[in-house]
TrEMBL record:
Location relative to the cell: Membrane
Annotated source species: [Clostridium] fimetarium
Family: Belongs to the GtrA family.
Annotated Gene Ontology cellular component terms: plasma membrane
Entry keyword annotation includes Heme: no
Protein's UniProt name: Putative flippase GtrA (Transmembrane translocase of bactoprenol-linked glucose)
Family annotation (InterPro entries): GtrA_CellWall_Glycosyl (IPR051401), GtrA_DPMS_TM (IPR007267)
Gene Ontology biological-process entries: polysaccharide biosynthetic process
Domain of life: Bacteria
Bilayer-crossing regions: 20-42, 54-74, 86-108, 114-135
Domain GtrA/DPMS transmembrane: 22-140
Name of a matching Pfam family: GtrA_DPMS_TM
Record keyword Nucleotide-binding present: no
């Protein structure tokens, strides 16, 4: 019974599941790039951690936009939203999930509940990644 339900879900949502997995791969690539940029900025150029984080955010969101446009949310030329409009929406969606929502969750988890930062950050990915995927799929890359 349960396996039948799982198979039905897989059949019904196969394309979205594949998109979500590709979205995760792009996210993994960006995590590595962000980590490298942040640490190079901090340890090599001796920049303030917030500056390093802001630079990494700006660069990796752009990389994410390019990779997601080409490999995850593929559309025909006629269906694609205008480049700058879609790019702006991607920055907004990542700002909502990566900066605003993550910031609120971290504050509550660390300050109120005393959860260690490294645990809270990982736990928040369970919330922020699916929300970001939905924002990208149904808003940022929405067809005309």
């Amino acid at each position: 019974m349960i396996m039948e339900q799982i198979n039905e879900i897989k059949r019904k949502y196969k394309d979205s599941i594949i998109q979500f997995l590709k979205f995760g791969i792009v996210g993994g690539i960006n995590t590595i790039v962000s980590y490298a940029i942040t640490n190079i900025g901090f340890y090599v150029f001796h920049l303030h951690p917030q500056i390093c984080n802001a630079v990494a955010f700006a660069i990796t969101v752009f990389i994410s936009f390019i990779l997601n446009s080409q490999f995850v949310f593929t559309q025909s030329q006629e269906e694609k939203p205008p480049f700058l409009k879609a790019l702006f929406k991607v920055y907004v969606s990542y700002s909502i999930t990566g900066l605003f929502l993550m910031g609120i969750l971290l504050y509550v988890e660390e300050s109120i509940f005393g959860i260690p930062h490294y645990i809270a950050t990982l736990a928040n990915l369970i919330v922020t990644i699916p929300i970001n995927f939905i924002l990208n799929k149904f808003w940022a890359y929405k067809t005309k």
